[in-house]
């Protein structure tokens, strides 16, 4: 990044419905930007905006595999396999004053699915419409079978962020894996920097699946789904690449694991956090294993998608003066603040 | 409870080494108390105090199955199968100024184990000794292969709390299951009320496995293990029983699931939280599923024991004026405060 | 064994209903025998004989935990922890001309269960009554919702065979684990020798859960359940003990793994087969791993019980002249033949 | 098929090394054939032929992702999404008089892997070279650390057979899933008809990964890998599509499940076998569940690949006169016999 403000200009990406993609891999870039560029982009919700009312059952108004549209891909100049793409989320704001959630036949954590195949009929398919009040910072839950209403805190995030996969694969946008994708972790909020392995020239970043908020595990299979206006900055770390996406915010180093069974997702995330900690603190592997064991957090992200996602978190307080990626997160955060202030 | 202070006297239980138990079930009570009684008890660490220095490798100084000793059982007068035993932790204080942690051959989340059987040799068995400074509220990590030292916040808890199992079973104290046992969740700290199913007359509560602190997942297999002095109050809820232990503190309703694979532990905990939420808020099951999906938290507890443990947490803010178990937690919390103040 | 016939007399064990046990561990022996003794015993079916007709729904006529009764325990003189108990099944014959099978609420592989907890209502509970024709060697399936009838080959076996568990545990008879128990493998038929770890003096063998036949996986949760008259011979191998039950017949070495998830049950069984093969053929671990990888079979046993069971099988053709346990299986098989011929 | 012999001519497909593919999806057809056509094709081994001797360690001589090459794709005229592609294997013959197997770093069932992430170093990487004697029907195992040699029966099969995936995905050839792919079941031998869902026009069949033989589970991660000359016949079933590949031979209906954890692979395969059985015998779902539970077999296929594979088998004896897909298997089998006889 070269400007005094720490970012290299801003570009906008507001795809038409026809430009939306439904996979990672298999697409030419919609946009190519230099490292350090701010990208302002819009995303559609996971239902393509087709679920707006109680009667809009997803299985009727959506058509597989046209679910979970993503905006992108954005190519980043100079990104080569073996590099790391850094993506800092400066702002994630609901683009609508409503969001929706739903059950979906044979999808979710507490239902038989196509993978956890059983002889049960699907649970009832039901839609909930949430009122989003961005000024108040709330989204309003309304029960469908009682009069209960209550406000939940708005906590906007993107469920789906990733790059083109390795090995020439093209994966549905609903799959989380080593390339990122549909990780569905509430940690992917504004103020977070995400680090992705670069698998193809340009990295090919795509973003979608905005959530006004989401519980850990995304138990019923969907969050408070809504369209978003999002501001992010991209940057590059040359010559190093993580095994799976890493995240960083002001308080935590965060690693992610995407696999089934859930203990393998846990193991992947913890294994990477042990390695990252060892590297930053100059510890041998077992000393880092010990430190992570006592200091780490381990919330579920999603337990409903085609892979499950666990995240592992280490408080940066234990890092002392060590900084991940030479302070990339802090630089991008500060650049984001200047950009937003100047906007 | 009948006294003005909300508790019915206090008794002490400081077992000799010979009185320590290594199972839930299969033991006569060491003590019988009325509901509402404060119990002050001491617990030994999971190694029976035998690991005190780097050279005290657990596999040498401990003898299977004499691991993870528990204090108890304590019988509660009037407890009958189908009831709920409430246990409020008023205080959990390290009884020593040191704690230990270790790897253990073929035990932990990032190693081959007897269940996840592989052809690898065990990882190195290594002991870490922590300095506990209760006044400062810290425990000091010292790396073994570098000079790194750092203080972690003290956050005392019990890994093992439970009652006699159902169906006449006797289970090793290292197993977490529907009766509680070695759940190893950091949520079991002072200020928490735990609710257990009563499976046998008297319930037969036992407590052990104090941790000066523990990361979520207990990745390496052990926490900062230390002896504890603990103050708790027991009480009874007649005629209702949870499927597995529930916890409550001032901020959260918490359910627990104990199973393998980890997604089943997750499912059990979420299933119970959905049911509990539905019952407290008068919601139908799907409305409660939706609310938990958006408002819940889902951290790992242990991913190393004979069953894995996940917890599910709902912020009590969403409950409005509804109170779990008619305010049992608040009553026990207040009684505990009065007892500690008067002590 | 000392007689010319290779067995040391025969005793009979036909428990009254009150003598039936529902656990491994926690019971005094009904009978004590010398190694080499033939035991003729009777077993009740897993429903205690209470399900006899379509209207006898198990959830109504059976009372938890009084399910899956076992006959025993039988103590074997001289058995000490660290030894191996050998049990050869000489004959397993249905004691009735009918058997039953059923679905059971929240039990089975293709239904939500208490562990794989979901929001579905249970599948329909339905009973099937089979006609057993021992002379013809068939059991007759009759569909409940159509007129289809067909004969399946009789293949009698015991689902539940085991010894008292280690570590002083008492486990429900429906649980399979390292002590054996409810393994539900069709390999446990007449002509098979099973080897169990001895965990307590006398070993304390119990047997139950006869199946007129069973598919691999016991998918719906029950087999063709029936009472059995069974002839077995017990013997001892001093100073060696397997990690989990092993089986042997004229064609195969068979190891068993009992765990969740199913891949851990697979891993345990394969790990033991690799070790057994290495030991018998004088191979290093990796050479044995390779041989088992190319020559082994790996059928599911049960995917419905509290632990799942996989078995691993190696054709004895690859063993050349090597014999497991110095030919114990062959000796017991021959003794059994002489006993049955003389009976 | 229209000829008197039941097949519509024969074509040959012998790709150059440059024509080999490493994915399902993402490739134009090498060949387009009519339904009923015999295809004679050659396949390279999973190492691309680069592992020929003990010193050819796969991690050195192979380059990810150029592993597990497949021959194809072959387009079948008239195949449309929603149809079923039938592929009958008439002959699978080793093209060499040697095969190889190996361990591979962090790959296999009894080792830490990238998914089951652990802190262990990889197991030793070791290559075994087998002598294949097609006339004798054997392949010769030679231990590497002892003098043991023994002949195993030749049982040639293809580990990898599949079609282009649904949803526009491109998947590495080492992944088994609903499109088939690297299922690694020993059931894929000559005499078997495999049925695949058609996801794209032409279906786009590819075949590779020949095994001179393979144990169930493919425990060490590789079988006796060799190049093959294979004869197959393709045909179409219009307007019906299975959820995942089904197989049929003269003795059994066979379904497949591809997932993690292994119990989900089991569930998928059993669920499909229940549905198939219900449909062929006119049973309701629970009656079919019962029949499969008592009559079915359930061997592991692979427990090492990116998804695990279980198969479920029902003896065709229980079908009476019912025939799957109107006798497609029998017709293709007979056509294959005529073709081979006339060749």
From TrEMBL, chains A, B, C, D:
InterPro entries: FmdA_AmdA. It comes from the Bacteria. GO terms for molecular function: hydrolase activity, acting on carbon-nitrogen (but not peptide) bonds, in linear amides. Pfam families: FmdA_AmdA. This is Acetamidase.
């Amino acid at each position: 990044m070269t400007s005094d403000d720490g970012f290299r200009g801003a570009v906008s990406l507001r795809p038409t419905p026809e430009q939306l993609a439904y996979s990672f891999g298999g697409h030419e870039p919609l946009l190519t930007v230099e490292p350090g560029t701010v990208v302002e982009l819009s995303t559609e919700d996971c239902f393509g905006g087709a679920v707006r009312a109680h009667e809009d059952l997803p299985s009727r108004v959506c058509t597989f595999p046209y679910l979970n549209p993503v905006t992108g891909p954005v190519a980043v100049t100079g990104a080569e396999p073996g590099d790391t793409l850094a993506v800092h989320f400066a702002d994630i704001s609901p683009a609508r004053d409503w969001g929706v959630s739903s059950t979906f036949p044979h999808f979710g954590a507490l239902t038989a699915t196509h993978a956890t195949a059983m002889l049960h009929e699907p649970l009832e398919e039901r839609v909930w419409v949430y009122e989003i009040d961005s000024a108040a910072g709330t989204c309003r839950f309304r029960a469908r079978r009682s009069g209960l209403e209550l406000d939940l805190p708005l906590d906007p995030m993107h469920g789906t962020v990733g790059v083109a996969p390795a090995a020439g694969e093209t994966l549905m946008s609903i799959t989380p894996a080593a390339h990122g994708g549909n990780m569905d972790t509430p940690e992917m909020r504004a103020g977070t920097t995400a680090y992705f392995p670069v698998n193809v020239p340009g990295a090919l970043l795509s973003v979608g699946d905005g959530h006004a908020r989401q519980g850990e595990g995304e138990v019923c299979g969907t969050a408070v789904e809504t369209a978003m206006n999002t501001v992010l900055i991209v940057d590059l770390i040359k010559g190093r690449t993580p095994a799976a996406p890493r995240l960083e915010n002001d308080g935590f180093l965060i690693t992610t694991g995407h696999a089934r069974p859930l203990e393998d997702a846990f193991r992947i995330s913890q294994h990477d956090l042990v390695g990252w900690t060892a590297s930053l603190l100059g510890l041998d592997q077992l000393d880092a294993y010990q430190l992570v064991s006592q200091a780490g957090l381990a919330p579920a992200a999603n337990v409903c998608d085609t892979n499950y996602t666990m995240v592992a978190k280490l408080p940066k307080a234990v890092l002392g003066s060590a900084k991940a990626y030479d302070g990339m997160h802090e630089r991008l955060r500060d650049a984001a603040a200047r950009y937003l202030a100047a906007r």
